[in-house]
Amino acid sequence: MPQSHLNSHSPLVAHHLARAAVRALYVEVALEPKPGLVSLRDRGSHEDMDASTFVRSLFALRHYFGRAALAGGQGVDLVGLQTLGLAAEARMLAATQGVNTHKGAIFGLGLLCAAAGHLCAQGQALHAPALRAALLSGWGEALGERAALVRAAPPVTNGQKAARAHGLRSALEEAALGFPAVFDVALPALQTALLAGVGERAARVQALFATMAVLDDTNLVHRGGLAGLHWMQAQAQGFLAAGGVAQAHWQQQARALHRAAVQRRLSPGGSADVLASACWLAALQPSAAGTASAVGHLRPAPARALAHP
User: Fold this and answer.
1) pLDDT tens digits along 103-115
2) DSSP label at 307?
3) Which residue stretches of 2-102 are H helix?
4) Cis peptide upstream of residue 33 (ω within 30 degrees of 0)
5) CA 171 → CA 129, 136, 175, 217, 227, distances in Å?
6) Structural contact between residues 53 and 99, judged by C-beta atoms closer than 8 angstroms
7) CA atoms within 13 A on the CB side of 197
8) Coil, helix or strand for 301?
9) Residue 105: which of 65, 137, 141 has the closest Cα?
10) Max Cα-Cα span within the chain
11) Residue 23 has what pLDDT?
């Protein structure tokens, strides 16, 4: 990636991006209903964590996303970003007493913050297509190479094991493609629902179900095998086919699926990470201040703070 530097507003920009990331992650955990996932209502399918665990994790991560943005603006390579991510993961695990609450978000949302930092350093607005292009041009090749190395080596993480065993797309491969689940599925679903006037909570649920319907969520495979993944995808597809959040009694339908997911101990954590990234992106779109306000009240920074003076 060519070397570049954030402008004189870089601390403000990095702080803004980090706050937006933390708030988007809080928006995700606060959302309910979410099949099998932790919310402010209950633990979902998890015995080792609840919403307070997520809040402790977010407090520990509050500076990481700004550091990732600054690193992206300085042209730091993938190894450098990984170093920041591993340090953030260690802080998360210390805060949660060893519980993995946000490992996926540290990876995915951290990369997106780095791409945003790069765009800000170039004086460009944070339009979603430009942000995706910055991610691919800056780190796409390295991510692809890393994904190939991981495929050739024995799997280590639960996600790698699930992806290898069933021929699914790994998180690294998803990142190397520019996060299609975020940019092509969750973000459009979120924005479309908001424009339809369903309200911010319902729009987030719609985006989550749209993601669950298609994502190779290795969290589901780890917990319930390929059958668990296919069951959740089918349930999400059925919910959407029935009208999604536009159908009557959609909350009851989603809560019934939540109870069924808990009975099966299924939790679509990968889809939750995608939703958080989509909320962060929507909140930063400079051409959609109204949408940004609706998504967790994450307002864009003034234009002068996002471009060279």
Assistant:
1) 999 999 999 999 9
2) S
3) 10-30, 51-61, 64-73, 78-96
4) yes
5) 20, 15, 6, 9, 20
6) yes
7) 0
8) coil
9) 65
10) 56
11) 97
C-alpha span between 268 and 264 (Å, rounded): 12
User: Which of 162, 262, 287, 253 lies closest to 216, judged by CA?
Assistant: 162
Region label for 296, one of left (φ > 0), alpha (ψ between -120 and 50) or beta (otherwise): left
pTM of the predicted protein model? 0.89
**Which residue do the tokens 């493609």 mark?**
177
Encode pLDDT of 127-172 as tens digits: 999 999 999 999 999 999 999 998 888 887 777 787 788 888 889 9
Q: Which amino acid is at 70?
A: L
- The DSSP 8-state label assigned to residue 246 in this structure reads G
d(CA 274, CA 271): 5
**Residues 139, 179 contacting (CB under 8 angstroms):** no
- Give the separation between CA 78 and CA 66, rounded to whole angstroms: 16
Residues 6 or more apart in contact with residue 213 via CB below 8 angstroms:
233, 236, 237, 240
Which residues, 6 or more positions from 250, have their beta carbon under 8 angstroms from its beta carbon? 202, 205, 239, 243, 244
Reported as a pLDDT band with limits 50, 70 and 90, residue 286 is: low
- Per-residue pLDDT of 220-254, as tens digits, reads 999 999 999 999 999 999 999 999 999 999 999 99
Long-range pairs, 298-301, Cβ under 8 A, ≥24 = 298/19, 298/20, 298/23, 298/24, 300/126, 301/12, 301/13, 301/16
Structure tokens at 274: 């995608």
Q: Give the Cα separation of 133 and 112 in Å (integer).
A: 11
167 compared with 19, residue with greater pLDDT: 19
